[in-house]
C-alpha cells in the first residue's frame, strides 16, 4: 500500500530491524470499550464509510491501507493522520505516503460524526481501526469484533515511515524482515497481503516488471505472458501513470481470487508474486491453502488484522483523545480546522507499498 516513483527507487527503504514494536504489553483493549460511553460508535463509522463507498468503491481498500500504514509506524496510534506543524514532521510526506494516501478526509468526516454523538471519547486510532474492519465487511470480506481503547499519539515519525513500510519491489526475504519488525509472522504476511484482493496501483510501480525487470531489458519471468500484454496495454512504457486493478478478476471484492491469481502468475506487484514464485518458499503452501478455501483465508485475515491492530497501542494515560485527527489537541484549538478537509481531499490513490 505506498512507495514512490521508480525513478528514485535506489533510495527506497532499507528495513531496519531495530526498535521493534511488540504488541503492547499493558494494552487493555476490549471490543466493548465504548459500550457505555459511545454505544453507537460502530454504526456511526459504518454509515459514513458505507455512504462514501457508494460513490467511491476504491475507498474501502484505501482505508485498510491507511490503517496498515499507521500501524507499521510506531504502532496503531493514528500518527499517520497528523499534519505538519512547527513541532511535527508528518508521515504523510514520507516516501511511501507522499501524494498517495487516501481516506484522510473520510476519517475526519467520521470523527466529526462521532464527536457530535460522543464528544471527547473515541480516539482517531480506534476510528481508523473500526473503519478498516467495516471496509472489509462492505468489500465482501470477514467481520470481527474490533478490540478498542486505543489512544492517539502526540507525535509522528517520518523516518520510521520511510524505514518500516515494505516496498512493492521487495523480495520475500525483505518482506519477512519488514513484518518481523512488527512482530508479525509468515502467515500474517500472506494473510495481510490478501488485502491486495481489491484496490488499485499506479503503473509506475510495475513498469520495471513489464519492460526492464532487474535491468535485463526483459519482463519479469514470473508474469503470465497474457497478463503481461494486458498490463502493457494499460501501462505503456513512457505513457501516462494510469491506475491498474490489483485483481483483474474481482477488483472490488475481498475474496480468495488474489491467491488464485498468484498461482497462475497474475500477481500485480513483484512483492505479491514473490509469495508464490520464490523457489521453495514456505509461503507457497499458505497461498495454496488460502486459494483453495476462502473461509481459511478469511479466518487468517481476521486474526492477522486484529494482531496488526494491537501493535504498539497507547492505552490508559498514554497519548490523548484528539479533538481533530490531524492535530494534537494543543494545536487543534489554534487552527480553523474547517479548512483541513479541503487540503487533504487532493490526495490520489495508487502509489502503493507492498500491502
From TrEMBL:
Residues 1-27 form the signal peptide. It catalyses: 2 a phenolic donor + H2O2 = 2 a phenolic radical donor + 2 H2O. The record marks 65 as: Transition state stabilizer. Binds 2 calcium ions per subunit. Binds 1 heme b (iron(II)-protoporphyrin IX) group per subunit. It comes from the Eukaryota. It is an enzyme of class 1 (oxidoreductase). It holds the Pfam family peroxidase. GO terms for biological process: hydrogen peroxide catabolic process; response to oxidative stress. Substrate binds at residue 166. Keywords: Calcium, Disulfide bond, Glycoprotein, Heme, Hydrogen peroxide, Iron, Metal-binding, Oxidoreductase, Peroxidase, Secreted, Signal. Removal of H(2)O(2), oxidation of toxic reductants, biosynthesis and degradation of lignin, suberization, auxin catabolism, response to environmental stresses such as wounding, pathogen attack and oxidative stress. These functions might be dependent on each isozyme/isoform in each plant tissue. This is Peroxidase.
